[in-house]
Amino acid sequence: MTYSIWHQRRCQAQQIDVAIIGGGISGLSAAYWLQKHAPGRRIAGFERGEIGSGASGRNAGFMTCGSIAHFDRQRTNLGAETALELWSMTAENHRLLVSEGLLNSACDYAKTGAFSLSRASTRVESLREAVEVLRTHGATVRHVSAGEAPLPEFAGGYWYEGDGQLDPLRLLGALREASNVAWHQGTRVHQIQPTSDGVTVETDGGAYKATNVIVATNAYAPEWLPELAPWVRPVRAQALVTAPATRPLRAPVYALDDWAYLRQDAHGRIILGGFRPLAADEEVGTRDLLHPRVHAALDAFLDRHCRDLFDEAPRVQRRWSGALGYAPDALPIVGELADHPGCFFIGAHSGHGMGWAFVAAQRLAALVLHGTRPGLLDARRLPGHEGG
Length: 388
Ligand SMILES: Cc1cc2nc3c(=O)[nH]c(=O)nc-3n(C[C@H](O)[C@H](O)[C@H](O)COP(=O)(O)OP(=O)(O)OC[C@H]3O[C@@H](n4cnc5c(N)ncnc54)[C@H](O)[C@@H]3O)c2cc1C
Hints:
This protein has 2 domains: 170 residues, 3-Layer(bba) Sandwich (FAD/NAD(P)-binding domain), CATH 3.50.50.60; 148 residues, D-Amino Acid Oxidase, Chain A, domain 2, CATH 3.30.9. Helix content is 29%, strand content 27%. Helix 2 packs parallel to helix 10 and helix 3 crosses helix 4. By secondary structure, the chain is α/β, with parallel strands linked by helices. The longest helix has 20 residues. The model has no long low-confidence stretch (mean pLDDT 95). Flavin-adenine dinucleotide binds next to helix 2, strand 2, strand 12, strand 16 and helix 10. Flavin-adenine dinucleotide (FAD) binds next to helix 2, strand 2, strand 12, strand 16 and helix 10.
């Protein structure tokens, strides 16, 4: 972006210590920890829409370590030790949000546990070893027979006690209130420019000079910072909500065969999302679009598995989509931008931002303030990084 001489006064860069770009769970969590550990710093947040206009205000509200099948995949791909460390970090994310007083009834939070269910008994059986590894690690995971499953037509599965559910937008509100950082909403950042004494942040509302910049724009990051394209793949996901059900759903459910997930909110409504693999090649990018084939599959799922929760046929009240960022190895990313000294990235939570962002942001704050490396989340593992 260029400026005319008439804009010059506006262009006099305001001095701040930290600029945070992106008002989702990543940006707000980063603001929270930076403010908590360095309260004297001048921190400003920039959000091009409203707080939560990205995926953080569009998700299903699972506070989760992921399904048992997710753990099993990580165990196969990364080894049991790494998979357990990742599982522990997401459990820690949940614990930290509670102990910091951010997850409570004000955001419709409940610790419910979650079911991982399959229609195929062979699939249920194939997860038994992963469950044993989790149990040895101290996790409470219980086998669920077909009769105990909360929905019909499932052969069974597992129930894990540690997960919960929440209203994600209310959690963002709690984080914002607790961190007391000034957020400039409706303010898009166009570019960040390293200079000899910091970083210039050029926004719709003028320029800022910051010592450090946190990029937390997730799926949208490669649109304005092309160097992040190898780290963040933007994909789209779909969700819907029904009118209130007549009967309760005992806990959130991962329906493993369909890559679907559902839960019941505080008003009794069923929130259902998933079926991405049905249109994996089409569900890419950041455009806000409903995908007809995916929504037809979501409707069919409601008919097949959720009829018992309703007296009448389930009625859909609203449908929406959201753009999220996937890392090449599906692990969140925390680290410096190779070409921008003083600038850091947090995001690419790969479908589980509610379950990851708070603990990832704690590690980000330790990296920014003390140079402590963020362990498994370290961006140095990725291509295009100095150390990678
Ligand atoms: C349908 C759906 C269901 C999901 N369900 C769950 C779930 O149940 N549990 C779970 O853990 N995760 C879930 N996720 C994933 C989760 O929502 C994301 O991982 C998480 O919200 C990512 O948070 P973020 O802050 O990194 O990104 P975002 O929330 O996308 O925030 C990025 C922000 O940056 C802003 N921005 C972009 N460009 C600029 C710019 N140039 N200048 C200023 N601001 C900018 C955007 O407007 C946006 O608000 C789901 C996602 C979707 C779409």
